[in-house]
């Protein structure tokens, strides 16, 4: 693609199971902290899944006024909180900006299942007239983007991309496109989720997608031969994307450059990735082609890596299909080994992980990975690596419905 504007990252924010800021999250990543533990949001006696990666010590009043917080469910609260950190990190003075040129692209994969459960009990009890007046505006997934835009007066393009577990990556990718073609100069973008609920856990369990393991250290072990399903997580991750010249003009700190975005569909199955990995491979290839580089220039892949049999095997095939022999020189890891599967927020927190990895020259261990199986023969980061030059990193996300999204991040060099 020619004559497209360059896009850089100038701010980051996060609410995660291992930290309620980017710095806290990253320090715990380096310590290999596992944010998985006994599920506390409801009684799991009758449920096969007993653990989750829950956000801890989060108080919405630390990020917004009490009245606003009451009108939101967790997925919106997390998004607004992560946005607050990202905007503060960007040092952006909103009063000096044209807010109609600042857009929002914050996706959520599910929305609020908790409110649906709570209010539906009133209907079952024969009291439909007692259903909360805020039910609909609280449960619909676009309200994360809406509440973020309202909280900060962002009047530009405002969208909610919903592509299941690829939501965070697609949200960032579409924000990137918006800046590239000149629709906006800046985008507040990322993903959020807060769906650890009875119906969410029961539903994923019925698909045999969630692990039944109760030991937090063994529950999520991507690429390991003993992997047994994913762990539900929650939280939000938001970044500020900005047109390069706009960022330079205001003297912004630039963390990295987003140089490629690939999005495809397997068109194969509602829950299983394509077995040969070709759909995910095409997404990676498109991102690499857009960046104008060859596959051998990529140093690191932050994999979708859910710890399910199908995903980890088929994503491995996708990496091999994309990179050929270079696949064996790549560092591959899964951040989900520590934060679980944050669903709509997964791609966004893994995008931040790529940026931090580039800046700190550090690739974290895939915690829980000990022994691979046949076909699973890549370097899945059994140990952390420090002092490693990373010029290009890819973040992969795959979602139910066959959605594949890849983001290619480049080390920024002042030019």
Give an overview in words.
It is built from 14 helices and 14 strands. With 415 residues, the protein is an alpha/beta fold. It folds into two domains: 7-249, Thiolase/Chalcone synthase (Peroxisomal Thiolase, Chain A, domain 1, 3-Layer(aba) Sandwich); 260-408, Thiolase/Chalcone synthase (Peroxisomal Thiolase, Chain A, domain 1, 3-Layer(aba) Sandwich). The strands form three sheets. Strands 5-4-6-7-1-8-14-13-9-10 form a ten-stranded mixed sheet, with helices on both faces. Strands 2-3 form a two-stranded antiparallel sheet. A hairpin with a 3-residue loop joins strand 13 (392-399) and strand 14.
How would you concisely characterize the structure shown here?
The protein has 415 residues and is of the alpha/beta class.
């Amino acid at each position: 693609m020619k004559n497209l504007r360059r896009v850089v990252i100038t701010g980051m924010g996060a609410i995660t199971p291992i930290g309620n800021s980017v710095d806290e999250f990253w320090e715990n990543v380096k310590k290999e902290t596992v944010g998985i533990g006994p599920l506390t949001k409801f009684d799991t006696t009758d449920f096969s899944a007993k653990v989750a990666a829950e956000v801890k010590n989060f108080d919405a009043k630390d990020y917004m006024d009490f009245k606003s917080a009451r009108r939101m469910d967790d997925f919106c609260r997390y998004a607004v909180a992560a946005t607050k950190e990202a905007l503060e990190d960007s040092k952006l003075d909103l009063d000096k900006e044209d807010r109609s040129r600042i857009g929002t692209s914050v996706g959520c994969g599910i929305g609020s299942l908790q409110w649906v459960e709570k209010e539906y009990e009133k209907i079952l009890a024969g009291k439909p007239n007692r259903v909360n007046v805020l039910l609909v505006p609280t449960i619909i997934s676009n309200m994360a983007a809406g509440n973020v835009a309202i909280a900060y007066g962002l009047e530009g393009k405002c969208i909610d991309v919903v592509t299941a577990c690829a939501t965070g990556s697609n949200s960032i990718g579409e924000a990137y496109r918006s800046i590239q073609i000149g629709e906006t100069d800046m985008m507040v973008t990322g993903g959020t989720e807060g769906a650890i609920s009875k119906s969410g856990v029961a539903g994923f369990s019925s698909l045999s997608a969630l692990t039944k393991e109760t030991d937090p250290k063994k529950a999520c072990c991507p690429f390991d031969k003993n992997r047994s399903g994913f762990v539900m997580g929650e939280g939000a991750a938001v970044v500020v994307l900005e047109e390069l010249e706009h960022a330079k003009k205001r003297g912004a700190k630039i963390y990295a450059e987003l140089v490629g975005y690939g999005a495809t569909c397997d068109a194969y199955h509602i829950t299983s990735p394509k077995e040969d990995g070709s759909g995910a491979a095409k997404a990676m290839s498109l991102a690499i082609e857009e960046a104008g580089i060859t596959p051998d220039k990529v140093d690191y892949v932050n994999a979708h890596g859910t710890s399910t049999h199908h995903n980890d095997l088929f994503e491995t095939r996708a990496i091999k299909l994309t990179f050929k022999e270079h696949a064996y020189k790549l560092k591959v890891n899964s951040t989900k080994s520590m934060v679980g599967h944050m669903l709509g927020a997964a791609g966004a927190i893994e995008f931040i992980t790529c940026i931090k990895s580039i800046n700190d020259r550090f690739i974290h261990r895939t915690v829980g990975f000990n022994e691979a199986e046949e076909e699973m023969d890549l370097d899945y980061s059994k140990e952390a690596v420090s002092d490693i030059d990373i010029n290009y990193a890819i973040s992969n996300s795959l979602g139910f419905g066959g959605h594949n999204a890849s983001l290619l991040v480049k080390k920024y060099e002042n030019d």
